[in-house]
What we know:
There is one protein chain. It contains 13 helices and 11 strands. By secondary structure, the protein is of the alpha/beta class. Among the domains are: 20-162, Resolvase, N-terminal catalytic domain (Rossmann fold), CATH 3.40.50.1390; 194-287 and 325-344, Hect, E3 ligase catalytic domain fold (Alpha-Beta Complex), CATH 3.90.1750. The strands form 4 sheets. The chain has a 5-stranded mixed β-sheet with strand order 2-1-3-4-5, with helices on both faces. Strands 6-7 form a two-stranded antiparallel ribbon. A two-stranded antiparallel ribbon has the order 8-11. A hairpin with a 4-residue loop joins β4 (132-135) and β5 (140-141). α9 packs across α11 (273-280). The termini are far apart.
Amino acid sequence: MTTSSSPLTAWVANRKGAADPLKTVGGPTLRFAFYARMSTAEFQDRASSRSWQLEAATELIGGHGRVVAEYIDVGHTRRRPWSRRPRATALLEALAAPDRPFDAIVVGEYERAFAGRQLQALLPILDARGVALWLPELDGPIHSADPVHAAALLHLAARSKQEIQRARFRVLAAMRAQVLQQGRYQGGRPPYGYLLADAGPHPNGRHAQWGRQLHRLEPDPATAINVIWMFAQRLAGRSIASIARNLNDARIPSPSNADPDRNPHRATQYWTTHTVASILANPRYTGRQVWNRQGTDHPLDEAADETAARRWNPGADWSLSPGLAHPGLVSEEDFVTAQAIDTRPRRATRTYALSGLVRCRPCGRTMQPTGSTAGPATAAATAGPALSP
């Protein structure tokens, strides 16, 4: 016997006073498209998040219609406009269909569906299609020409923007303090040459009860030796290009090949000068925890397209742990010395017409122009690393 056909279910459904929130009370029945959003799939239960948003939406439209289609975005920040959310985009495309299956749109909460003034940019599109948007905060459909509704939408936009700014400030301030006071690892992919290891239970008692652990960096036996070799070669005066060339000649797997599961966004199979330079410039190889080397600029005008730009922060904005947070692969003195080494030839900049266009047939690598300072000493130093591929 299924739950839906059990005697108890039938009794509850027929009990006096128990009403179906979607049952219409006379008049035409509207067909609603329900939109919901979850920012992360790792830290939220999709089923419960969908349920509470849908419950708020169905309570709002009770007596007016029912939900006939669902559009739920998962893993997309609300800063991202609807045109860059897959399910929201599908909903917008469905608006133009002459046989669309819905008459109106309903959301469970403004701040789950919109950020800032995104809704103001969306309303003209909805009005042109004759589709109303129902908001719980307005207790019904939005009327664009109503000055009260216009004022309410401005208030909701300001509140949403304020919440984003407040949450961002609190999170960044907490992360900065954790690095400066505890040297705590702040997540993300471990640098090449390191693995993640448990560092004891989470300091938050509730999280510790759930089994959450802190993490720290530990040298990876398979790749840490490569990082040590790169710093040694750089300190010996080798150029970054020659270091990359020797790594490829020795068939040492590049970072994306060494850990493809954690680098699905990187398709480069070979070492490049950029990869080597990034490793040699990363101060975390000294054993100190460094945070906020890079920042992301998010425009707060959510009516426009999201154009988050990565930027390097000045050293004064970096957060550096007071002591060693993990085993280092190079001393601080050697790291600083390596940063001052410049092996670039002092000559006029050349332009190579075929740069990036010519590809090696045997290995598939793109040819890159490299300044040559070849001589007896340089030729002798080009022997590959004494490492196993």
